[in-house]
Amino acid sequence: MSEKYKELLEQYDVKVLSTFRSRGTFQCETEQGLALLKEYHGSLQKLALEYEWKEKLANAGFLTTDRYFLTKEASLVTYDRYRTPFVLKHYFKGRECDCRNLSDVAASCRNLAFLHKVSSSIEEIPFENLKTETTSHLFERKNRELRSIRKFIGKVRGKNDFELLYMNCFDSFYKEASHALAHLLKAEADLADTDCGMCHGAYHYHNVLILPDYSVATVNFESLCYQPYLLDLYLFLRKTLEKNHYDYAFFETGISGYSIYRHLTEKDFLFLYLLFLYPEKFWKISNQYYNHRKSWIPPRTLEKLQKVLAQNEERHSFLKQFADFLRTLNINLL
């Protein structure tokens, strides 16, 4: 163990049995189990909120999160000689969720539903302002951003391959975005009572660990936020479907897993459908391009756009299956 890590760990009332590096992290075997020491780059205020919420979750019965250790001085952070902040948190001997494995997808969605169920039972929310952006406002904002990016690229001289392809496919994706917004606005009154609460905010396969006994641990709550619970589920399912050519079986498996702890109503399914209707991946690539320097576009950016174009037919096929399912619930999408 380096002298730096030794000094940092000595600030905790924790007996370290052994240390090792794993995928760029510094992990420790302690008398309290596996722990992870890492640099912290966020705000101390957000860290305190995250700590408080994880403690509330644990007290309410949701135990398997990467809760933080406090130092001997009851601080959440400790500093090295260069004033770089570090945190020490509980961790788990497990593997990332395999989003191509139906059993892992079911377990992850079941775990998410349990997280939401426990969260909804906690009365004291550590957010002062519980206002959340409506989904229609979110879609409207993203559509404005898409128009701005289209206008910017239109003025670029000597367009590169990414910009040429972007201009060529923009109209079709923007039409989808406008269509999604129009449908959402029509249904907004019916969706006004969608359940909101404290959400993970970045619940995807990288932040879900499958443990040796096949229980599930949830880590990396840095994006903790107050929003509709279904946005957590949508994010996990969207990323899972993208990895599986929008195979409807993965959607059904995820929904079945989630429904074990939280019943989904007809309005919930409609809300999920409208979220999937929006071309989120195209907006993400657009946003990444616009917010990075334009003098050199990484080849990966072009590859991502090409992949979105190639996958869009699969996505439309999934949406048709989803729409057919909604009709069995007597939900009119016209």
Automatic annotation (TrEMBL):
Origin: domain of life: Bacteria
Gene3D superfamilies according to UniProt: 3.90.1200.10, Phosphorylase Kinase, domain 1
Keyword Cell division in record: no
Cellular component GO terms, alphabetical: endospore-forming forespore
Alphabetically ordered keywords of this record: Capsid protein, Virion
Record bears the keyword Transferase: no
PANTHER family: SPORE COAT PROTEIN I
Stated name of the protein: Spore coat protein CotS
Protein source organism: Anaerobutyricum hallii
